Amino acid sequence: MTLGHAIATTFGGFIFPFLIRMIWGKMVDEWGAIGGWMAAAFIVGTTWAINHGISSSMITQSGGAWIDMAFAAGVGVYVASFLKGGKLGGSFVNIGAALVGGVSGGFILSLFL
Amino acid sequence: MKFLRGMLGYMIAGMIVMSVWDGFAAPYGIAGGYIAAIIIIGPMWFMNHYVGLIDNPDGDAFVDMALGIGITGIARDVFLKGSDAFFSAIPTLGFVILGATIGGYVAVLVEKNMEERALEGKEHFPANEEPAPGYLSEYGGNK
What we know:
The complex is a heterodimer of chains A (113) and B (143). By secondary structure, chain A is mostly helical. Chain A has helices spanning 3-31, 33-53, 70-83, 92-112. Chain A starts with a helix and ends with a helix. Chain B folds into 2 domains: 1-83; 89-123. Chain B is built from 4 helices and 2 strands, in the order ααααββ. Chain B has helices at 2-51, 65-81, 84-88, 90-119, and strands at 135-136, 141-142. In chain B, strand 1 and strand 2 form a beta hairpin. In chain B, helix 1 packs across helix 2. In chain B, 37% of the residues are buried.
């Protein structure tokens, strides 16, 4: 991984939670639940295209384990909601659930993939 | 119960993304990615954050289902390829987390500035309701 790849990967991590904070909630406010589908298509789909989809993608995978841009969304949205006054204490159960659920899900996937 | 609900939400979202997404993206490329985003992220978001399977009360820091998806991706490859797969991926993981932290921070700066501008009575209205400040349509653009 070169310095250039590192800068690009960092910006790939920047862009996804930034877009989610800017427009996901607004789309749901404007269009209700359908706004969530619009956001799924046009935030996740479009950002996936630059971060992972194109053949020379913005997030460079340095190793064997897949680092998905979803990690950026999880971290960035968490940081933003904390800075807007969200309490950390109440969120730890969900972080633990994400760890246990994610590892269990990965294990089940490894049984058949 | 909160833990079980969260675990199911993060796990199901992660499992479907980390198996079915490639099924669309491998044969259909970018178009497959959009299809995957609509048919996977759409219903998973609806279940986890609209219906509220994952219990994220208003006052608490928000743990998005994306965190579960990201962890599932790493765990899948560690179980398939061994722990070396994780250690070799740490540089990417670090830069992504760094970028995400800056992204969340900058988004909050922008949001707070928008809120301050709104309090000053200078909020921006979407173009289909009223022209944005400084936008004079008879001159064909921003002035």
